[in-house]
Design a protein that fits this description.
about 750 residues; alpha/beta; Rossmann fold; 4 domains; three-stranded antiparallel β-sheet; 25 helices
Length: about 750
């Protein structure tokens, strides 16, 4: 018997805006269709809300339109907002926030006389401090962009110099992405409450996710019991803070206290429902305890009170957009802001910085008035020019600052979002602190990514904090540089050579001999003296070194690939390479799932496995630390690098060894461009129903069963080719073969067109 689904528009108590709730026929809950969905309508007009309710009920009655194939017809019949609410998160397509910024403000290129530089590095390496130096006086006056001792940059920050007037584009998480983040924050807080944590611990879980990427405390305000601390002592603060009257702060605190009470009520109700079936939580141990927590969390998430609380928080977050007076918002059909833009004359730098403060600030005084966690990227243009630029010299650069490597937690790969930028820039600048001397595992993984994607010629390394390097055997600047560069050689010899190839390590080593830079005292607060004359000498010397760096960035040239020559490969042996990919990938995730012990990879907590399944089930990707797609792409790149570097022969003109390396690196680049889509298809788009089933599991042993289902997905989608292979494994080999053949033909076409 077919279920008839209906929608209802209503206001939550104490709210003016309407929400619409209905059971969705295309979304499952506990293996059955009809998951409850609750979305904000963005209106406080009762008649308009009733109109939306009638429209949704009409769409729910049109079962012939209940598929992605029916969206086009639905769009012809129904209000765009109703269509978006019904279909918005069914199609596994990630919104391109970068493309949206490009439409609103084009990023200048080499044709415009500009040089593009990507800044990458671990959290705290000094990327943003370096960027401030490259901006000039405007950064000093406004403490812009934000710096902090604790993970400041959580989105792409793109800076364009040499523009006559100021302009900015800010892009935001979609309504669906924001609701997913808030849902997870509320769910994690409920889980803490179920476990009996203190008010402060529960509030912290709500306001700051453990990976410190989505921080609701910036939007809603900090918990009143939290101590001041020094986390944001060097953040984007101005002489005039935007924090407003205590009335609004009191209102924010009242909302947080009410939210905490609702979280505890939801947690108590979940325990009350589950404990009679599974026993008292405090008496359970091991897997039984984990299973009970999972059941309680699931019961809580399915309650009407939970959905209402998520919508309360969504409404509160949405209200923050209304406090932005300057600039202009671009909105979706549901009224949710997609982007914000502003333009101001060059005579108003302070007004410009003040206008964008709400989107990238982190200072504690501004908590409760910021939109920073909702931002996916900021593009800023203006007449930025440091004082150390020689008179008469042009300063046309695009600097792209990125989220710190290993921002969330230790992972086994560099995110695909970062490697996708390699092709779009002229230089990849890895910023590393000399205090670490390349001891961070992230640096080695980054070298692997650069080598296996074929962008060795674009890489440069910049060491900060050279003033901290000391030792009895380090008596000169040259000895300090040699000591620090020894960390580079160690990674190349012991990690890149092993995981990628010896040839890749050799190329990187030779290239970095003349593409490594060393800086001390980038942060003026660290100067050993406050004497004006001494400081002036520091500034003059540092300015000269920064100008040399910029000149290097401007004059870097890529290899000439117009030689008509290509490598020839044996595709019969490609199956062995694919077998190696499968074995490595499955070994990593067997360790993550707890089926195998590896020295460098431990088992992920059950909550993380569930969170990963949720993201793949719902098509929601936010940089979560468990990323099978990124792992597969990384492993495949490394293995194919070894395959590509050893061709059977060459056809065409005779090339030098360096010219051959350049052609092979170009093949790696083209292969990399296709790998991410292949990974998405294999591990997300095709098995998405299986992910939905794994995430929606409930009942006895669900945490263990979920791990098994996830493992089954990996083993089916990334099979190990054997001597007598099955159809699934053969298709996997053919996918890789087509990808390599496409790269060869693509490079052949490039050579002919040149």
């Amino acid at each position: 018997m077919k279920t008839n689904y209906t929608a209802r528009a209503y206001r939550n108590p104490g709210r003016t805006s309407f929400v619409i709730a209905f059971r969705h026929p295309l979304k499952s809950e506990n293996g059955r269709p009809g998951r409850k969905v609750c979305k904000g309508l963005g209106t406080d007009d009762e008649k308009e809300a009733k109109k939306f309710e009638d429209g949704m009920n009409a769409l729910l009655g049109r079962t012939d339109l209940h598929s992605m194939a029916g969206r086009a017809e639905a769009a012809r019949i129904f209000d765009p907002q109703i269509v978006e609410i019904f279909y918005e998160d069914l199609d596994p397509v990630v919104t391109s926030h970068r493309a949206l910024r490009n439409r609103l403000m084009e990023l200048p290129s080499e044709n415009d006389g500009y040089t593009r530089t990507l800044l990458a590095g671990i959290t705290g390496a000094g990327k943003t401090t370096l960027l401030r130096r490259l901006i000039g006086p405007c950064a000093d006056r406004g403490r812009f962009p934000s710096t902090s001792v604790n993970r400041t940059t959580t989105f792409e920050f793109e800076l364009i110099t040499g523009v006559e007037s100021y302009g900015a584009v800010v892009t935001f998480l979609t309504r669906h992405q924001t609701q997913q983040e808030i849902t997870e924050s509320v769910s994690n807080a409920v889980l803490k409450a179920i476990a009996g944590a203190s008010d402060e611990a529960v509030a912290t879980e709500l306001l700051e996710q453990s990976d410190q990427r989505f921080r609701l405390k910036y939007v809603l305000g900090g918990w009143h019991e939290q101590s001041g601390g020094t986390e944001d002592a060097f953040s984007f603060d101005a002489t005039a803070t935007t924090a407003t009257d205590g009335g609004k702060s009191a209102s924010a605190q009242a909302f947080l206290r009410a939210t905490l009470k609702k979280v505890r009520d939801i947690a108590a109700a979940a325990r009350k429902e589950v404990e009679p079936l599974l026993g008292q939580l405090d008496s359970l141990r091991g897997d039984d305890h984990d299973y009970a927590l999972d059941e309680m969390q699931q019961v809580a998430e399915q309650s009407d009170e939970f959905l209402d609380l998520v919508n309360d928080v969504m409404d509160e977050v949405s209200d923050r957009f209304k406090g932005i007076g300057a600039g202009k918002f671009t909105k979706s059909s549901t009224g949710w802001p997609d982007a914000w833009t502003i333009s101001l004359p060059s005579s108003q730098p302070d007004q410009f910085i003040e206008a964008i403060r709400s989107f990238c600030g982190t200072h504690k005084d501004q908590w409760g008035h910021l939109l920073t966690p909702l931002v996916t990227g900021i593009r800023v243009a203006g007449p930025f020019r440091p004082d150390w630029i020689p008179e008469g010299e042009q300063y046309r650069h695009v600097f792209i600052d990125t989220e710190g490597l290993l921002h969330a937690r230790t992972a086994t790969e560099v995110p695909g979002e970062l490697t996708s930028l390699f092709n779009a820039v002229d230089t990849i600048l890895l910023v590393e602190s000399a205090k670490n001397a390349m001891h961070s595992p992230a640096a080695g993984k980054f070298f692997e990514a650069v080598a296996s994607t074929g962008y060795t010629s674009k890489l440069a390394v910049l060491f900060t904090h050279m003033d901290t390097v000391s030792g009895d055997n380090l008596s000169s600047a040259a000895s300090k540089r040699a000591h620090v560069f020894g960390g580079v050689r160690n990674i190349l010899d012991n990690q890149v050579a092993r995981n990628v190839s010896r040839e890749a390590a050799r190329q990187l080593s030779a290239h970095l001999q003349s593409n490594t830079f060393y800086f001390a005292y980038l942060d003026p607060n660290r100067y050993p003296s406050t004497d004006k004359e001494t400081v002036a000498k520091f500034e003059a010397r540092l300015g000269g070194e920064l100008w040399q760096l910029c000149e290097h960035l401007r004059t870097v040239r890529q290899p000439d690939l117009r030689k008509l020559a290509l490598p020839v490969y044996s595709f019969e042996s490609l199956g062995l390479a694919v077998q190696e990919v499968s074995l490595q990938f499955l070994e990593i995730y067997d360790a993550r799932l707890g089926y195998k012990r590896l020295e460098t990879i431990g088992p992920a907590p059950w909550q993380s496995i569930k969170a990963m399944a949720r993201r793949y089930a719902e098509g929601w990707f936010d940089g979560f630390w468990l990323s099978p797609i990124d792992t597969l792409v990384s492993v495949t790149r490394n293995v194919l690098t070894r395959f590509l570097e050893v061709p059977l022969s060459w056809e065409g003109k005779k090339l030098t060894d360096e010219e051959k390396a350049a052609v092979i690196n170009r093949l790696k680049q083209v292969v990399n461009e296709s790998l991410t889509e292949l990974g998405k298809a294999r591990l997300w788009k095709v098995p998405q129903p299986n992910w939905q089933e794994a995430y929606g599991l409930g009942g006895t042993g669900s945490t263990f069963t979920r791990k098994q289902r996830v493992r089954d997905i990996f083993r089916r989608q990334i099979p190990v080719p054997q001597s007598i292979s099955d159809r699934w494994a053969q298709e996997w080999v053919e996918d890789i073969k087509r990808l390599v053949q496409h790269a060869i033909e693509f490079v052949r076409g490039e050579q002919k067109s040149n």
